[in-house]
Amino acid sequence: MKRSEAGRPNTSAAAPGALAQRFGRLAIASLHAELALAHKPGLVTPTDRGSHDDMDAGTFWRSLAALRGYFVAIAQAGIEGAGFDTLRRLGLHAEDAMLGATGGINTHRGAIFSLGLLTAQAAQLRAQGAVASGVQVCAGVSQWRDVLLDAPLDPTSHGQRMRRAHGVAGVREQAADGFPLLREIALPALQAALDAGLVEDAAHTHTLLSLIAAVDDLNLLHRGGIDGLRFAQQQARTFLARGGVWQDDWRAQIAILSRAFVARRLSPGGSADLLACAIFLQRQART
Fold first, then answer.
1. Closest CA to 287 of 131, 139, 75
2. Distance between CA atoms of 90 and 82, rounded to whole angstroms?
């Protein structure tokens, strides 16, 4: 660290700029929006634990408070063109902060990874003068493809055990390929719902159910095995085929679906992370 002529540390070079602060706040706001959504089968909401005994909305609020600095820092790293090792190190420190705030409960590990990379890339593109679409930001993450695929994994994590047992791709492969689930499912679903004039509450629920219908969610596999995953996917597809959130009684239908998920202890956490990412990508293109 350089020192000023007065002998005090000069931190201006390392301090995050206004752009990093803006994108960091936007990332946290997107996670807040996902948590605040009331119509999420099996997931934690502001008034419901969903299928979880070990966490509630308060657990998530504490986690988000601990992660505020991370998203600003990773946005700044993106602006500065930092290498993947730097981004990964920031992510690992963020995981420690999350676990410290929640008493060891994993609330946002997937979002730390996926939304962190997207925040870094979106901030980098904006610093270069581009107002990038969500699709462009996703595609830009694939610049780290080789190092993403070579990065070490935690073989003891629930997600990695399910990934090996069932031969499905995880978030690392999604990131390396430029997040096709976001580009091809979540972002089109969200934009179509908003273009149709739906309020954000309904648009976000539509996006989440579209993801549940299509994603091989490792959290669903962990909690319910292949039968649980297929049940969740089929229930979401049935809801969408009936008209989804365009039905007058869609909230009542989601409530029924939620009870079915809770009875089977199913929680589509991977889809929830992708919803937060889609919200971020849609919003960053407007700011």
1. 131
2. 11
The amino acid sitting at 172 is R
- Whole-prediction pTM: 0.91
In the structure, how many helices (H) and strands (E) does the chain have?
A: 14, 0
Separation CA 94–CA 189 (nearest Å) = 30
Cα separation, 273 vs 48, in Å, equals 18
Number of alpha carbons in the 13 Å side-chain half-sphere of residue 178:
11
Tell me which residue range forms the domain holding 244.
18-284
Domain membership flag for residue 93:
yes
For residue 13, being part of any structural domain is answered with: no
Q: What is the pLDDT of residues 4-28, one digit of tens each?
A: 333 333 333 446 799 999 999 999 9
d(CA 27, CA 23): 6
Which amino acid is present at 121? Q
Indicate the burial class of 189 (C-beta count within 10 angstroms; 0-12, 13-18, 19 or more): buried
In a domain, 204, yes or no: yes
Residue 2 within a domain? no
Gap between the Cα atoms of 232 and 230, Å rounded = 5
pLDDT digits (tens, 9 = 90+) for 48-95: 999 999 999 999 999 999 999 999 999 999 999 999 999 999 999 999
